Amino acid sequence: MRKIGVALVGCGGIGKIHAASLKTSPYAELKVACDLEASRARAIAEEYGFERYTTNFDEVLKASDVEVVVVAVPPRYHAELSIKALEAGKHIFCEKPMATNLKDAKEMLVKAEKAGVKLGIDYQNRYLPSHSKLKEIVDSGALGELVQVRTRVAYPILESLPSDAPMLGWLFNPDVAGGGVLMDIGTHWTDLARWLAGRDYAGIYALIGHFDPRIPTGVEDTATILARMEGDVQAIIDVSWAVKASMWLIEIYGTKGTAMANLPQGVLVYDEEKQDWVNVEMPPWEEPHAKLLNLFLKSVAEDKEPPVSGEDGYKSLEAVIAAYKSAEKATEIKLPL
Questions:
Q1: Domain identity same for 148 and 297
Q2: Statement to judge: residues 144 and 265 lie in one domain
Q3: Which of 73, 149, 292, 310 fits 77 for a cystine, CB–CB 3.0-4.6 Å?
């Protein structure tokens, strides 16, 4: 098994999750922890076993023992740092969203192709066991032709994050975050719906709103996307920071059956013969961040397509950008943009 030198850029909350994931990967050699704050970089390096730490991103770019750069900084800086690293010939595993606009996202794709390196995006929700099982069921054809995909998630952000969470310093600033709940959570679920359906978006209609007075009004805290996918499959995506309680529910409707995930029962499939719901056995639990990051490193080691590619990241971001345009104009936005 080929070992791969890795640098982590961004040692805040999500950076710590990636550091823990890297520590479990048999492919990873933890070389550099990088952050603007030396104390955070040093703490991550010492806790997870990076060989050294730095506050200078140029040192990461010049490091001959670093093949992969994990970008875990706020969204505004994803594209800037990724592009520099791609130009330096590094493989990139980037936090979502890959960029805050499509121009920068496209440049990331172009730079990766030109340099002949891998570009992966952190949509780890694909690897939750219930989601993996749902994908298996859809791809088996057991549900027949797809009719509709629905995803629904409430993540009451101020109740869910500790008050001293580093990301609360920028999450509600659209100049840094790129938007509100759509850019934060919505991008996960536009990716998930597209992946489950196995087809791209053709049109987006969206509503966005603001309901929690504690959240600055410069960003939306609730959004609903109604989408047309290729083949006239429908998708409904609901996300909210303001709703206080809701299951992370995913529903797949086909011409021959229905499957639902993330219920207390796990994954349920409607059995036409039994005329009843059947509980499906789940795959074993694997921490989704760790699984995706390990698969990305494996793709680098074996020179294969990343499990969640830069193109996947672009398509998810494109749907979110179209949702903002739709909400502003109160009309359907056709894709591709």
A1: no
A2: yes
A3: 73
How many Å apart are CA 141 and CA 145, to the nearest integer? 7
247 and 300 inside one domain: no
Residue 54, both tokens: 């730095």
Domain of 139, CATH number, reads: 3.30.360.10
Looking at the fold, whether 11 and 108 belong to one and the same domain comes out as yes
Q: What are the tens digits of pLDDT across the range 283-312?
A: 899 999 999 999 999 999 999 999 999 999
Within the chain, strands assigned E span 4-9, 28-34, 52-54, 68-71, 91-94, 119-121, 146-154, 201-209, 222-229, 234-240, 249-254, 258-263, 266-271, 276-280, 333-334
CATH number for position 54: 3.40.50.720
Structure token pair of residue 154:
């409430």
Q: How many domains does the chain have?
A: 2
Structure confidence at residue 25 as a pLDDT band (50, 70, 90) = very high
Q: Report CA-CA distances (Å) from 100 to 114, 123, 199, 287.
A: 22, 16, 23, 27
Write out the residue range of the structural domain in which residue 273 sits.
125-285+317-334
Q: Taking 80 as the threshold, does the pLDDT of residue 332 lie above it?
A: yes
